[in-house]
UniProtKB/TrEMBL annotation:
Transmembrane segments: none annotated. InterPro entries: Aminotrans_3, Aminotrans_3_PPA_site, Class-III_PLP-dep_AT, PyrdxlP-dep_Trfase, PyrdxlP-dep_Trfase_major, PyrdxlP-dep_Trfase_small. GO terms for molecular function: identical protein binding; pyridoxal phosphate binding; transaminase activity. Belongs to the class-III pyridoxal-phosphate-dependent aminotransferase family. GO terms for biological process: L-arginine biosynthetic process. Residues 1-24 are annotated as: Disordered. Keywords: Amino-acid biosynthesis, Aminotransferase, Arginine biosynthesis, Pyridoxal phosphate, Transferase. PANTHER family: ACETYLORNITHINE AMINOTRANSFERASE, MITOCHONDRIAL, AMINOTRANSFERASE CLASS III. This is Aspartate aminotransferase family protein. It comes from the Bacteria.
Amino acid sequence: MLDRPTANAPSLDAAPRLGPPKPDMLTLDQAKAMDVGTMADVFKEHINPGQFHFMKLLGFHKVKVERAEGMFYVDQNGRKILDFFGGFGSLAFGHNHPRILDARKTFQDEKRHEIAIAFLSQYAAALAKNVAACSPGELDMVFLGSSGSEAMEAAIKVAERASGRKNCKIVHAENSFHGKTKGVLSITDSPLYKGEFKLVDNTYRVPFGDLAALTAVVRSDPDVGVVVLETVQGGGGIVEATTEYWQGVRALCDQHKVIWVADEVQCGYGRTGRFYAFEHHGVVPDVTALAKSFGGGKAAMAAMIARRDVYMKAYGTPKTAMIHAHATFGGIGEGCATSIEALNTLYDEDLIGNAEVVGAYLKERLQAIQAKYPSIVKDVRGRGLMVGLEFHDFSQTLPFALRPVVALLDDKLKGSLSGFIGALLLKDYDCLVAFTEYNRNVIRLEPPLICSHENVDQFCDALDDLLGRGIVSIVKDFVKTQMG
Ligand SMILES: Cc1ncc(COP(=O)(O)O)c(C=O)c1O
């Protein structure tokens, strides 16, 4: 029987505190109620003051998201912002898809288990089976993690072991992006992100899409055991390679017993109109990785998927199996439940088909805009709902009077229209777009896969109207945003 306090027992309030006093912390309600100015101050003080500078240039710092539903954010003033950014491809289902919310709520109401380290998890097992069912060929073995970087770390580890090379070298592409953790940072091409850290140096770097260059490196060094490539380069500015290239990569890797890792973190999960982008080219890699929308836009979920024989070579014995065991939150219950519901929804709602059809319409409308403003728009490229819009570099064509003003504003935006256009699309047209790591002239469009023809029309009408102002007015209007 429980001891009950007697009338004389000290009340709980008066009980001496056993642990440290509670620090001065904000409650969840206070967090929710924080105004946009306080958010900015706290961000600068505790998160990243330098990053705030860029958010301010783009005007992103003025928005406090109060709700998000489907294709739209709703800000503190009730303004609906059309999301063509899509969390860099993390929002295939849009914001807060009801079916995914319901699955999570049911999981919580039933008090299901989260951490499955001691016991097996029915959710992790079912999710792995579903991922294998969505994956062609023998891509059957699944590692669950919580970020694209983690999935890519697992990918290069399984590949390196399966390659059988003791001093294994990894080939990656120019303008590649595979994540920011230290292992994959070694194969992410950006000097900015590499930040002079001491990284793994067993790498080669080749131009993306150049089979001759890749062949030369593979042939030149028998220690080359792994080739890692995004199927569509996202950070590089939405850049594709030809079917001939991918078939050549497959043949080259087979010939030299090199493991091919296809990074599908951004371009996978239906975004290009196939579950995996490599399916457009009739080839299957040895290892691949998914993240971003894999968690249904609600959970931090990622997967590395390896061919069974590759996996078995790396971790197939009781002695090697535990080298590979997942992290504490790898395959977490609610995350897996969310991903199971998300994958079912992806197919039940035919979102991959929608990405192909609506994506083609988006490209068609953008190409018409390019034809209308050929001196501003240089290129429209991509597949499905992974589209890049490249502007001409105008640093040399801008009137002399405006050049120093623009240069003063920010070195990063100099010569790049995309920052100005992105800022004005948000300010004047309530449309949100993304930029790319390597090409400052490219706007990256990765709207949710639920995107409709009407959403495309709203976006393209806005862009058409904005470009109709002409470059000089666009720059002047942007300069005004920095003064207000
Ligand atoms: C192609 C690719 N690989 C890996 C990553 C890393 O994913 P995460 O940011 O979830 O670690 C990204 C993220 O943008 C990506 O685009």
